[in-house]
Amino acid sequence: MNSADQSTTPVVVSITGCAKEDADKVLRALGQSHASDRDDGDAPQYVSGDHATVWTATFDVSGTHTASGPVQLSDPVEAEIQGGYWAVDRIQETLASAFTVQEQGMAAGDQEKDVQLRLSSGGS
Fold first, then answer.
1. How far apart are CA 4 and CA 122, in angstroms?
2. Which helix (H) or strand (E) holds 87?
3. What is the pLDDT of residues 43-74, one digit of tens each?
4. Where are the alpha helices (DSSP H) in 42-84?
5. Which of 21, 35, 53, 123: disulfide with 60, CB 3.0–4.6 Å?
6. What whole-number distance in Å separates Cα of residue 112 and Cα of residue 104?
7. Can you say how many angstroms the Cα of residue 73 is from the centroid of all Cα atoms in its chain?
8. What is the pTM (predicted TM-score) of this model?
9. Do residues 16 and 78 lie in contact, with contact meaning Cβ atoms separated by under 8 Å?
C-alpha cells in the first residue's frame, strides 16, 4: 500500500460509555475536520433496552484537516478507532486538538490498527 492509498482509507470510530450528548460532541468535532457518513443534523440517540449503546461513524481523512478548539465533556468517553495506520493517526491528531486523549490499548495488523482511547474535556 502506498501513501496515496493510505490517505483514502476510511476510519471507523465507535463511541461508548457516555451520554448521547458527549457522543455527539465527539462525532461533531471529528465531522468539522473530516468528511463523514453522518448527516449534519444526525444526533446520537439511545436504543431502548438494557444493553450498552455504541455510536459509530466512518470518516474520510483524505481532505484538509482543520483543528478543532477544546471541547468540554460531562464525563470521559471511550472511543475505538479502526483503519489504516496513517488514517488512524490522523483521527487521533484531530481528537487531540479537541480533547485530552489517553491511549488505553492498541492492536496492530498488517495494514490496519485498532486503538482504544479515553477522551476527556480538552484544555482551554
1. 31
2. helix 85-98
3. 555 555 566 678 899 999 887 667 678 999 99
4. none
5. 35
6. 17
7. 14
8. 0.83
9. yes
